[in-house]
Design a protein that fits this description.
A four-stranded antiparallel sheet has the order 2-1-3-4, with helices on one face. The model has no long low-confidence stretch (mean pLDDT about 85). The termini are far apart. The protein has a domain of about 140 residues. Helix 2 packs antiparallel against helix 3. The protein has four helices and four strands; from the N terminus they run H-H-H-E-E-E-E-H. With about 230 residues, it is an alpha+beta fold.
């Protein structure tokens, strides 16, 4: 095989000065090109270059597994702890000190093994007379027939706050045999922050869980006269 870098030496009479100089130039050029041919054929740095190209993708993939795994774990723990909170609430118990919401938030923090900060938990509790009332607005008399409530129109003040509300529920764990909605909102901070530009907002991912239960009939009268739907 012909070497593409070989130097062709012109033919001169043997022993002549021109022939000697031509041979020397040929040897000099061959010596000069030899290191470059070795560099061109050297593949020892290939794995390092390949790793440098693949490393960012590998790290991003690992970070995604970690973040989504932790997000799923915390979500499951919050949902499970919220069911425990609801089971506590349906009994009508009042903790020592009377701060039932604070007690329930601490229950969630304990059940999540320290992954969730109780002070950052937003726990919303709303009670309704029946399941049909959950999430419904307070009824009103649509005097002008425009389909919306206008000031001055008659309405059913289910929660007794003196204003017509889009949600007829009352704040708190409710009374005997009432229906209660427990909802938790929590902003989970990403562990690695590598995925922050991809998921969540400002390095946080919002987690929400809710459950609906009916309180136990601890008041005997509620068994005889169960709560009725709050309608006009």
């Amino acid at each position: 095989m012909t070497d593409p870098h070989a130097i062709t030496v012109p033919s001169f009479p043997a022993g002549s000065i021109a022939q000697t100089r031509a041979s020397q130039r040929g040897r000099w050029w061959r010596h000069r090109w030899r290191p470059w041919r070795q560099v061109r054929r050297d593949e020892h740095g290939g794995p390092a270059v390949e790793f440098a190209l693949a490393a960012p993708i590998i790290l991003m993939t690992l970070a995604a597994f970690v973040e989504f795994g932790m997000y799923g774990l915390v979500t499951v723990l919050i949902e499970g702890s919220l069911r425990d909170v609801a089971r506590y609430g349906i009994t009508g118990q009042v903790p020592e000190g009377g701060d039932i919401v604070g007690h329930m938030r601490q229950m969630i923090g304990d059940a999540t093994h320290g992954l969730v900060d109780p002070d950052e938990i937003v726990l919303t509790i709303r009670s309704y007379p029946t399941f049909d009332d959950v999430g419904q607005g307070e009824d009103f008399v649509d005097g002008n027939g425009n389909g919306t409530y206008d000031a001055g129109e008659t309405f059913k003040d289910c929660n007794g706050n003196g204003t017509r509300d889009a949600d007829r529920g009352s704040t708190g764990t409710g009374g005997s045999s009432q229906v209660v909605v427990y909802q938790v909102d929590y902003d989970w901070r990403l562990w690695t922050q590598v995925m922050a530009p991809v998921i969540g907002h400002d390095g946080m991912v919002h987690i929400q869980a809710s459950t609906v239960v009916r309180n136990e009939p601890w008041d005997p009268d509620s068994s005889l006269h169960p709560p009725e739907s709050c309608t006009l």
